[in-house]
C-alpha cells in the first residue's frame, strides 16, 4: 500500500532534521511517497507568502503532513503559522506524548504521559484582541465552546481506551475562570461517566504543574484547554530531557499533521549538529496513525537503544556526532 505524505521541511534546522527523518522512513520501505511543499520563511522567500495556497491544497489532498519547525516573522502576516494551519484544517486535538529514554538528561524514570490539548479556541483565539490608542490597556477574548470541549475530552478518553491507559486527568482553572474553564470542567465530568472503566480526576492547573514536578508518575493522560495544554506539554517535555525529545501531532477529522514541537534553532542551522529525535518520533506517530504499529515501535526501540549505547549522539545528548551520524546509528538498529 502506498501512502502520499505532504512534507514541509521548515525553517532553520528543519531541512536537516527532515532529511534525517526521511532516511529513517525510507529504510522501513513502507512504500511512502512524498509531496514537498513550502511554508514559513522559505515560502515567503520563494512565493511571497508564509503559507501558500498550494501548500494548503496539498495537505488537504493527502490528508497527512509531516512538518519541520516554522518561523513566523514578527509583525508579518499570521500571529502564528502553526495556529493558522490548525485552525484552517480544524485540527482540534494536539497530542503530545513524553516518554523517558535512558541516556538523556531526564531527572525521572518511567515517565509516560500523554497530554491532549484543545487546539482551536480558548485563549489563543485571535479574534477580539484590542489595545487602546495610548497602549495602556490590552484586551483579549477567551472563547470555550461545548462542542470543542466535548470533542477534545471524548478524543482523550477514546485514545486512552485504545491505548490501554488507565487514567484521564482534566486540568482546569474553574475556581477563578468560572465560565470558560468552568464549562470545560462541566463537559469533562459529563463525558467521564461514559467511560467507567477509566479512572478520572480533575486538577486545577497550578496544582497540576506542581504535581508534575513533584510526582509525575501519578499522571497518565492529561486533557485540557489550549493555553494550559501549551504550558503543560512543554513542562512534561522538560521531565524527559527537553523539547528535543518531544514529538507532537495535530489531529482533525480529515487531516493529521505531525511535527517536532521545538523551534527552528536558527543559531545552529546549517551546522549539521541538530538532534532529529523529536521529528523522527513524530514520524513514528504518523506511521502508527496510518496503521504501521509494529514499524513505529521499531523506530522508538532503535532510538532507545542508540541512546542507551551512547552511540554517535549529538551535542545536546552528550555526544559530538553530526545529525547524519546520529541518524546512521538509529538506522543501524532498525
Residue-averaged pLDDT: 94
Which CATH first-tier class of the largest domain would you pick? Alpha Beta
Would you list the SSEs in sequence order as H and E? EHEHHEHEEEEHEHEHEHEEHHH
Q: Please estimate the helix content.
A: 40-55%
- Count of helix runs: 11
The biggest beta sheet is recorded as: 10 strands, mixed
Share of β-strand residues: 15-25%
Order of the strands making up the biggest sheet: 2-1-3-12-11-4-5-10-8-9
The total tally of domains equals 2
**Quaternary organisation:** single chain
The CATH homologous superfamily of the largest domain corresponds to Isopropylmalate Dehydrogenase
Shape: globular
Using the CA coordinates, give the radius of gyration. 20 Å
Enter the CATH topology name of the largest domain: Isopropylmalate Dehydrogenase
Spans where pLDDT lies below 50 across 5 or more residues: none
CATH architecture field of the largest domain:
3-Layer(aba) Sandwich
**What gap, in angstroms, lies between the N and C termini?**
21 Å
Strand segment tally: 12
Topology:
Elements: E1 4-8, H1 14-28, E2 33-37, H2 41-47, H3 53-62, E3 64-67, H4 81-88, E4 93-99, E5 112-118, E6 130-131, E7 138-139, H5 146-163, E8 167-172, H6 180-192, E9 199-204, H7 205-214, E10 221-224, H8 226-239, E11 247-251, E12 256-260, H9 277-289, H10 293-309, H11 323-332
Parallel strand pairs: 1-2, 1-3, 3-12, 5-10, 8-9, 8-10
Antiparallel strand pairs: 4-5, 4-11, 6-7, 11-12
Helix pairs in contact: 1-9, 1-11, 5-6, 7-8, 9-10, 10-11
Gist?
This protein has 334 residues and is α/β, with parallel strands linked by helices.
Amino acid at each position: 500500500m502506498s501512502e502520499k505524505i505532504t512534507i514541509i521541511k521548515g525553517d532553520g534546522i528543519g531541512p536537516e532534521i527532515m532529511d534525517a527523518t526521511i532516511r529513517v522512513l525510507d529504510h522501513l520501505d513502507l512504500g511512502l511517497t512524498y509531496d514537498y511543499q513550502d511554508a514559513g520563511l522559505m515560502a515567503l522567500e520563494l512565493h511571497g507568502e508564509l503559507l501558500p495556497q498550494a501548500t494548503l491544497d496539498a495537505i488537504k489532498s493527502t490528508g497527512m503532513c509531516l512538518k519541520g519547525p516554522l518561523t513566523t516573522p514578527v509583525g508579518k502576516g499570521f500571529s502564528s503559522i502553526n495556529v493558522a494551519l490548525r485552525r484552517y484544517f480544524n485540527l482540534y486535538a494536539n497530542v503530545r506524548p513524553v516518554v523517558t529514554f535512558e541516556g538523556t538528561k531526564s531527572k525521572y524514570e518511567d515517565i509516560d504521559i500523554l497530554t491532549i490539548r484543545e487546539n482551536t479556541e480558548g485563549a489563543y483565539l485571535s479574534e477580539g484582541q484590542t489595545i487602546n490608542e495610548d497602549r495602556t490597556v490590552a484586551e483579549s477574548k477567551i472563547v470555550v465552546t461545548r462542542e470543542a470541549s466535548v470533542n477534545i475530552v471524548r478524543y482523550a478518553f477514546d485514545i486512552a481506551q485504545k491505548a490501554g491507559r488507565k487514567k484521564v486527568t482534566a486540568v482546569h482553572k474553574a475556581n477563578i475562570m468560572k465560565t470558560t474553564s468552568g464549562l470545560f470542567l462541566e463537559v469533562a465530568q459529563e463525558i467521564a461517566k461514559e467511560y467507567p472503566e477509566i479512572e478520572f480526576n480533575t486538577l486545577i492547573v497550578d496544582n497540576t504543574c506542581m504535581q508534575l514536578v513533584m510526582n509525575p508518575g501519578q499522571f497518565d493522560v492529561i486533557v485540557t484547554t489550549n493555553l494550559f495544554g501549551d504550558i503543560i506539554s512543554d513542562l512534561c517535555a522538560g521531565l524527559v530531557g527537553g523539547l528535543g525529545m518531544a514529538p507532537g501531532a495535530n489531529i482533525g477529522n480529515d487531516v493529521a499533521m505531525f511535527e517536532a514541537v521545538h523551534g527552528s534553532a536558527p543559531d545552529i542551522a546549517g551546522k549539521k549538529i541538530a538532534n532529529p529525535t523529536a521529528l523522527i518520533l513524530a514520524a513514528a506517530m504518523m506511521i502508527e496513525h496510518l496503521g504501521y504499529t509494529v514499524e513505529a515501535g521499531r523506530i522508538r526501540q532503535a532510538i532507545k537503544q542508540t541512546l542507551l549505547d551512547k552511540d554517535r549522539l549529538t551535542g545536546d545528548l552528550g555526544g559530538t556526532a553530526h545529525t547524519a551520524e546520529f541518524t546512521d546509528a538509529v538506522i543501524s538498529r532498525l
